[in-house]
Design brief:
alpha+beta, 4-stranded antiparallel beta sheet, 1 helix
Length: 90
Amino acid sequence: MKRVSKKTAIVKTQYGSFKAVFEPENDMGGYVVTAPKVQGAVSWGENLSHAKEMIAECIEGAIEAHIISNSIEQGYVKFTPKAKRMPAFA
């Protein structure tokens, strides 16, 4: 059984810095990368640099989706027919 060497790095985003874990991807090549502290933040990159860029975008998207979801729950955002299903801030 081949041992998998995980690598970690701190990824800077517009929302702060997060630990990322990089694992080699045997089938496609490149790296699968996760951010353990950000629910749903999983991505892939052709190399470590690309994977780092991709997880930064993923982290930002996950945080923004969480913000929008909370805003909808709190009633700060509502959907209107005119907005064509895009959130319109109340």
